[in-house]
Amino acid sequence: MLLDDFKTHCLSLKPDVLVQKYLIESETFFFNEVKKGEEFEFKKEIASILDVHVRDIVVVGSAKLGFSLKPAKDAPGLYLFREFDFAFKNSPENEKSDIDVAIVSSPLFDKEIKNLYDYTGYYKNPPRERNSLAQYVLKGRLATRYFPNDFPLTQEILNVQEKYQRNYGRTVNLEIYKSWYFFETYHQENIKNIYINLIR
């Protein structure tokens, strides 16, 4: 079972190797078990819209693995490894699991940082609330859910999200990473926390 293997490897592999093995190179659960054979078209459409290479697109989270790597909300140190669509399977009134997508592209990151800077007039009117978008930027990530609603790229992303919301009946979240360093470092830190959880 993949979860058992993952836990075993959490205790035996270095975090960087684990991230590369499971989050980058492994098969995608959602496109193997739910929407078989649609992964390339899904990634290719996002890549075309954002003008990046299809290899820059990585599905992450429970859609990638079939189980979640998020800690419990009420106990940050506890990892329950809940299966994909756990909440929905327990009660159809709950939403289905999201599909989380990372775009790893330095040119796209730099372009959109500049566009956001110019578009928002940040140099003239820095916003009072800086914790939403800014806290991600400092980690080499652009969380598109915090883009201004009328920002040009926002509409392109929304078009993709709305299409797959209709097709898959679930939310698609996109984040742009400056480089593989920032992508891997972010996930490695989570793996280190999971390791601590497993050895307790």
Describe this structure in words.
- 52% of the residues lie in helices and 13% in strands.
- With 200 residues, the chain is of the alpha+beta class.
- It has a four-stranded mixed β-sheet with strand order 1-4-6-5. A two-stranded antiparallel ribbon has the order 2-3.
- Strand 2 and strand 3 form a beta hairpin.
- Helix 2 (15-24) crosses helix 10 (180-199) and helix 4 (39-50) packs antiparallel against helix 9 (152-168).
- The longest helix is centred in the C-terminal third of the chain and has 20 residues, at 180-199.
- The protein is globular and about 50 Å long.
- The protein starts with a helix and ends with a helix.
- The mean pLDDT is 89.
Give the proportion of residues in helices.
40-55%
Mean pLDDT: 89
Task: Tell me, briefly, the overall form.
Answer: globular
Structural class by helix and strand composition: alpha+beta
Q: What composes the largest sheet? A: 4 strands, mixed
How many beta-strand elements? 6
Strand order of the largest sheet: 1-4-6-5
The end-to-end distance, rounded to whole angstroms, is 22 Å
DSSP helix count? 10
Runs in which pLDDT lies below 50 for 5 or more consecutive residues are: none
Radius of gyration: 18 Å
